[in-house]
Amino acid sequence: MFPSKFEYRRVASVDEAVSILSQEEDAKILAGGHSLIPLMKLRLASPELLVDITKIENMSYIREDDGEIAIGALTRHHALETSELLAREVPVLPAVAATVGDPAVRHCGTLGGTASHGDGASDLPAALLALDATFVAKGPKGERRIAAKDFFTGFLETALAPFEVLTEIRVPKGYRSYSFQKFNRRAQDWAIVGVVAVRNGTTNIGYVNMGVTPLRATAVEQQLASGASDDDAAAAAAAGLTPPSDINGSSEYRAHLAGVLVRRALSELG
Ligand SMILES: Cc1cc2nc3c(=O)[nH]c(=O)nc-3n(C[C@H](O)[C@H](O)[C@H](O)COP(=O)(O)OP(=O)(O)OC[C@H]3O[C@@H](n4cnc5c(N)ncnc54)[C@H](O)[C@@H]3O)c2cc1C
To answer: Best exposed site among 18, 39, 162, 265 by fewest CB in 10 Å?
Structure first.
């Protein structure tokens, strides 16, 4: 399978990328290429121009900044997996990153790429949603910050404009208690359903593959906040949701699985 014909430009700065994206109507950013290239091969995406941002300097980092952890958009999944700072301050991210695909995927895929792709079946976006992350985007008019709750807007759609570059993802410190339940058939597979739970006083829960976007388990969170038992809260796992049906499981199966995984996650949180 071959993608349709496209032009390719490698940029050296975010400003250069923004300038090209603002002028070209059918251009797409290329980061790790591990979601975009498969889509292009299937002809589900046919951009006329790829803007390769991988050689932009200083866009791959994990550091403390203003009481938060700032992660450059070009940071690879492998770097998240092996970061001592994250292991100490936001341990759910290394745990989730370690389950993404296989080592080849984790050495190419970027946090900015998986966030911008906005796939409800992806693991790290659900973790970012549970952590109430903030997304920093740069466009022709400068920088803006987008809260995670406003970022994932639809099927493979985010709040990013076509001419914006996601430059940084910021996560709060303090969520040291976590549980990640990824249910798949083989270690390197995508999740049939995933549950990312973090606790820092309140409990936040993100879902993988329970809808077209990454989702919060709002009903479970509300139950817990009002003092319900873990069992009662887990019973609300699929309330108000319509999980997808596919070859790996029906919507009903996913709804049941979510309850089981939420229950496991809550007991692991302690
Ligand atoms: C075999 C295989 C197995 C996988 N298994 C899993 C899995 O188990 N779990 C999982 O979560 N993921 C999985 N993935 C997906 C993987 O995590 C991808 O790397 C990730 O989803 C996309 O990141 P990327 O850097 O490759 O982005 P790209 O493919 O380069 O880009 C993805 C999209 O984001 C846009 N984009 C990229 N960077 C930016 C930016 N900085 N600003 C604005 N837009 C941007 C691109 O234009 C494109 O639309 C798998 C992929 C493969 C090929």
So the answer is: 162
- Separation of 21 CA from ligand 1 center, angstroms? 19
CATH code that applies to domain 177-269: 3.30.390.50
**Closest to 12 (Cα-Cα) out of 74, 75, 64:** 74
Q: What is the pLDDT of residues 257-267, one digit of tens each?
A: 999 999 999 99
The C-alpha atoms of residue 89 and residue 76 are separated, in whole angstroms, by 18
Phi first, then psi: give them for residue 83, nearest 5 degrees.
-75, 125
- Domains of the chain by residue range: 7-52, 62-172, 177-269
Which amino acid residue places its CA nearest to atom 36 of ligand 1?
113
E strand or H helix at 258: helix 251-269
In angstroms, what is the span from residue 107 Cα to ligand 1's centroid?
11
Q: For 62-172, which CATH class?
A: alpha beta
For residue 254, give the H/E element and its range: helix 251-269
Distance of alpha carbon 29 from alpha carbon 111, whole angstroms = 14
Classify 238 as helix, strand or coil: coil
Q: What is the pLDDT of residues 102-140, one digit of tens each?
A: 999 999 999 999 999 999 999 999 999 999 999 999 999
- CA-proximal residue: ligand 1, atom 1 (nearest): 101
Cα 175 to chain center, whole Å?
A: 17
7-52 is a CATH 3.20.20.140 domain: no
Measured in angstroms, how far is the CA atom of residue 109 from the centroid of ligand 1? 5
**Pick from 38, 36, 62, 61: which is nearest to 49 by CA?**
36
Mutate which of 8, 36, 54 for ligand 1? The one with the most ligand atoms within 8 Å of its CB, which is: 36
Question: What helix, strand, coil percent values describe the chain, rounded to 5?
Answer: 35, 25, 40
State if pTM tops 0.85: yes
